[in-house]
Amino acid sequence: MWLTDPNTSTAVAAVDTGSDTVAIAGDLTAIIADNSFIEITGSTGNDGTYVVASTTFPSPNTDITVAGDITDATVDGNVTYNWTETTVNAAKSGIKFA
Prior knowledge:
- The protein is mainly beta.
- Helices cover 4% and strands 45% of the residues.
- The protein contains 1 helix and 9 strands; from the N terminus they run E-E-E-E-E-E-E-E-H-E.
- The two termini are 22 Å apart.
């Protein structure tokens, strides 16, 4: 099970399928850590839970590169971050690994 603060979800601002990156507004590089998890919801084709490979801040957005495939270039949906891990079965959770 995963727990998250409901205030840690923000709209997708950009998508790059070539680098498996989504962008969200603001500088969240100190908050979203490498090897943590994000969840994309409400998107056309990228809904799922992803492992964060890296984050950068090419102002005005935080780019989140994931270890997995971002396959749909449509800019929509929300990114939820700041997960607290309890117990997870990766095979049942749908987490996408590279």
